[in-house]
# Entry
Amino acid sequence: MIDTHCHLDGYQARGELDAVIGRAKAAGLSGLVTIGTDSQDWALYRRLAAAHPGYVWHTVGLHPCNVDERWPEALAVLDGWDDEGTPPVALGECGLDRFHLPKDPGEAERVFGWQRAAFAAQLALVKRWQCPLVVHSRGAFAECVAMIDAAEIDWRSVVFHCFVEGEAEMDVLLSRGGTGSFTGIITYKNAPNVRAALVRAGAQRTFFETDAPYLTPEPHRGKPNEPALIVHTFERAAQLLNLDVRALSEITNANARRFYRL
# Structure
């Protein structure tokens, strides 16, 4: 199993990272991809990847909820980042988020305009780097798809992380060559649409993530998440896809390694 999307900065800050990685290895994980969200974690994640070669990989990206009027300054830091030290395995997470916009309509539109501009700039960076793209989309699925289409990104290198849409939206991704990544949400009672989307995608066209420390799977929901707990997501997914966990792990491990070029 590979946790294809987690956030390790909090564990590092609390001095818990070695224990978290130890539990991940004990649970059978063969690697973690720690996902960049703004300039404050990019250098940290590069150091963590260098310290754990072949087990921790990292990405860089400006999360839409971290976008403000200074976004060009933040992205300027990435100039040449793919050539320095331990290179990132993808650009992201980046995209659009309408859920967390300000309540004032005018301010919301202004912030969303910054999000669109920052996403466009990162799509241009994806084309320059010729790297995979990790998309954050919340309340803006069609808009994200339209912007990726317009940028002429190779959809085979696009994943919508924490996929929470349904079968119709999954069909949109699959028809283009892209895919979605699934979290512990598939274990929640109130997520039948997400489970249906997973079945539609099938094992060959998806992979799994924790998004730790968020979205803890059942039976640990309500507690902090960590990569080792992805086992529960794999167990539920295996039931849905009529596979055993080992077979599902082998298939999605290969998917993740191919996608991230590990």
Summary: The mean pLDDT is 96.
